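writing this on my phone so excuse typos. first protein, seq and then structure
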Amino acid sequence: RSSGIPMVYVGWTGNPSENGNFGTTWRRHANQLDPDVERHVPVTIPSELLADYQVFCQETLWSLLHYDIDYVGGVGDTQPALWEAYVQVNMRFAEAVTEVFEDGDLIWIHDYHLMLLPQMVRKRLWYARVGFFLYTPFPSSEIFRILPHRVELLQGILGADLCGFYTYDYSKQFLASCLRLLGLEGSPKGIELEPRGGHVCEIGIYPAGIDVQELKHLVSSAPVKNRVNDLRKRYAGRRVIVGVERMDDCFAGITHKLLAFEEFLARNPRMRERIVLVQVAMDPRTPGAKKVSSNNINYNVLKKQVNEFVGRINSTAGSPASSPVHFVTAELDKLDLYALMCVGDICIVSSVRAGMNLVPYEWTVCQHGSSKGPLILSEFAGSAQSFSTAIHVNPWDTDQVSSAIEQALEMTAEERQANDEIAHRFVTTHTAKLWGCNFIEDLEMTEPVRTRPAPTPLPDVGAIVEAFQGADKKKIVVCAYDGTMVAYQPLSELAAPPESVVMNVRRLLSDESVMVFLLTARDRHTASQWFEATGLGNRVGLACEHGSFLRFPGEDEWHVLCGDSMAGTPNLEAWKSAVLPVMRHFAKRTPGAVLEEGEVTATWHYHDADRDFGEWQARDLHKHLESFIVQHLQVEVVSGDERRKWIKVR
């Protein structure tokens, strides 16, 4: 809303409907709406579809995406009906989007409820730019392939031009499923699809964020401050551990947290009167439609377990004057919730599987002006990769979580201050607005239609050898050096010619009718030093930096062939000043990557980086460079191949 981009929200109203005329509703209000104001367009879902649709989303998709496979496929013979309801609801959304779409619009589809929608929209609006974002984890291919309709769901998502995830791990597992189930291999550009013009689905990583300014305003308001004062009086003399989850989220890890806290109290009996765990576990919201029995069973079992654990801890470690666990199941007002976060000393997020969890973000903002309390964060939470200063734990390891509580309590003020500064800087820069704007900007940059270049045919080696041997005139042998005569090396220091190469070059030069030219991407100074050290001197012709500099055999003079991009010109300085900071940034944040700076080229090598992460970073770097270089500067951005892994600007 604050981005300034006109929005049309297409969604279900939250109420089941027996029938409805969407088109009439839209046309009746279209002429009355200000294009600069957000618009809301309802999609009607008949009650007979709604129940089965919600069951499929909750019981099948949501469970499986969180690695719970107990109820995948529905209960008994209900699965076909559940799937049909899911298809029909997605189709209703497709009809609604098609009716309100105007040329130039961007379409952004959200979450697992509408996995089929991108492809449905693509069939109707083949020229539109379509984005899809998944708010949950994406499981490994071994889990996802259990779904009976796995292929249809993947094909549905791949109808998008851009598919976004919270973390790199989720995107990697999505790509693995596409490879294993569809035979589609990802590339630095995304996933290239065969039908109708080479459509490409790009993949992007977009960490979550919150509205920091709004939260800061609430935290500094008088109602929250009054609640903070009340809570501090109530918990005076005690350290406060805060946990915030929903009781109907069986992946929140509430029981894991309680077991770890119980062990902590057993190991530290002196803390029983000096610490309290305030566990907020809000009951489920009123459902809009019926749920199948399995969901109710999960919720009832979890609630019973949590109540038993709370009762056991309070009875064994509590006293008539105090209880170690304060258990809250009521739906807290956000002012009360943020006041609790301001008062707390430690926050524990013990999710066993989670996509979007904003509690770490809210905790960081609330604590910045308070005690700067540590965050104990499950390594399985989607936000774990974003909070590097948190104490990361495996919630299944009770001893580790218990030790993490001890570590957090013993943390010095200086450590808390340093960790808080890093976390607060991340949260205040990676906001919800930035998350949304980044996705929309990337979606705008996608190309709806792409063509696949034809492969270069292999030469006839036998014919080449025969022609060479039969020639009675002067012969020129032109050899690619990097990756051909010598093994590809990202570091030029390791790419000097070995003795075997020097020997073969000498054999060629022993024939006076033969001239040898070597083509190398390295700079001319490095290449010259190589062959001077071998004793060949200037007998070998060199074409350096992809032909930008040429030296003929027997000559010492270099010919500069790079035109306006030659060294020392204003154009060279202009593109280098724009390009090099970006490439250095990617080299620093990609372990194993190195940046090689030539006179008229710059090469980012990722040969020694992690295979998957290096490919991902290469794609991201390529996109960053193309976004401004190709449009404004007289240079090009080129990529290497599977063997020569680099991104080059020349």
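second protein below, same order as before
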Amino acid sequence: MSRPHSIRIIHFRDRLVLEDISDQSVKPGVIDDWATASGGDKAASFKHKSLVFPFDGSKVILANNKDELEQHGGAETSVGVDYAVGFLGVLGLPSGPYMVLVRQTRVAGSLPSADVFSINKVLFFKIHSGEARKVDRDVASSVAQLLESGFFYFCYDADLTQSMTRIDKAEAYDSAFWWTFSLVKPLPNYAKRWGLRAIYGFVESFSFRLPSMEQLDISLVSRRSRRRSGTRYMSRGVDNAGDVSNFVETEQVVWSSRLMRTSAYRILRGSIPSFWRQNEGALKPPPEISAPLVYSRPLFRLHFKKLTSSYGQILAVSLVSFKGSEAVLCEMYERLFELDHIANAQLLAFDFHAHCAGREQERGKASLLSRLKPFLYKHGVHSVREENRRVEVTSRQTGSLRVNCVDCLDRTNVVQSHAARVALSMQIKETTGQVPKSIGREAEDAFRAVWARNADAISIQYAGTKAMKTDMTKTGKRSTSGKISDGVKSVKRMYYKNVIDENRQDIIDLMTGYATYVQMRTLSHTDNPIWAAYSDAQLVSAGGDRQESRVEIREESLLLKTPEGLGFEYKRGFLFSFERDNHRSERPRLKLHFRPGTEDVSPASSPLVLQFRKNPGARERFLRMLLLWSDLPQVSAQRNMLVRVEGVLLHLGPNLILRLLVPVSFSLNRC
């Protein structure tokens, strides 16, 4: 369905009204001159469908006409009018909820069925009766900076979160690529339908002519997953829902308007699906395995189960080095594939740095492509043709490449662009029936340039700088200027790691719903009564930084609040393992792993790492209460447990847990 592309915002003292005036706007995504110049009488006509947001926190109201709106006070005099070109949803800030709307856009590209817009400017409006606070402006400014980065895209008349292969399917309510989903999640369904389905990634289009003079259009669409989202050193590996960091689906769409044929090709990237980190040290730290392989194996299997379910056969192309600091990741990934034989998935390990260094780069890339082409040709591309207003699928892509290096950026970009060039030849054949020997110098340059800009966009979002090795993407060769540019980018990435990424991670967590602003309540008898509160624990971020935090164990959930007011909630009953760790600083630490719940997103910051300022006794007291809270019979009657004590598995009932906590160290897994 089409979302409102012109919205009148009417302000009242006790509510805010959104009026859909799309039928009065000539051009979607643009605020027309007549709208901004219209007076109060026209603004208050209320002839269109409207959403009413009361400031008292009551339910959002849908009014289909003026009479329905007047039943909710619409006849009163408004105190102001604004205009917007799209509705993103509602975001919780420190003082309360704020509405988020799109004020300005630009056309970023197109698809066969719709134009694609990027967000240029957003608006925030308070929709609660409390006083606005300065911290609201600070947080809203940071969120706006993310939304206005130029990397958020949407369509009014199509669902950009879904690839072309899902055109014939219903819209996915909770797509992993719908980045503003958490902003509409609390709203009723009729309000959700107003929300723009925005992606975070990259979109660009260009046209070219074949030697036969047939014109083709190409769009490149990269969709970043909002699950396990974050910045480079803050987010690595897999989480407890089987989702991985820096997971991006890139779709290359080719179509002929004259022939009414369209072809699409999808390729994936994502962090190695196991528990690992890279955060010890101020400069470039080496990768480290952060948990025994036994913890990674079920999540490794879950990750590939999700991929094969969505994309068919998967060829996992690993480009990490076989030697040096990266060897630990290479060996771990190979070992996981050896231990767990995944149906419809296989690993191809290729040491990119060893094979594509210096003068060997051309030979190395040719060697890798020769190993990829059989898979690419076998699994093809997705193609459709339209005839007499009927869409017929003429071929399907039955498998996808999943490419990774350590960061899934620079080496990954090079290999993906070369695989996409092979796919482009297949797409041209499917679309036109032609097999040209060459698409022309101009088209080749345009193709490489758009893939280089895609690489830059994905890199800026994850690492803070443009991509390295883009000279290889643009020209196919390494250059001296490219090497110098890469050196500058390396320095910038270190700066982002140590200075900026923590704040960027907080804003991403807030945007994607992993964190919320909460008011930690005092001890009281409420619907979620408190069991215990702890102020001597520090939250250890994925980057290794420590923050003073308050932890409350309540009847239904564990709540953690940072000094900035960000709150993380972990539902009761989803703790499935813990690890004790005495860090190099000799401070006792505790790592808690939570299963994903029934909510759309998995628990934030899982595993949750806490450091205790006092002796290990403080950690043990917290752990006793946590396990008692997690395992009460009324939550789940007599859960059985497997406890590993120095390599020996014991079968325990819930009543035996606390007796073993002090004398031995063990990890706990729910059966």
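The two ends are 44 Å apart (CA to CA). thats all i got for now
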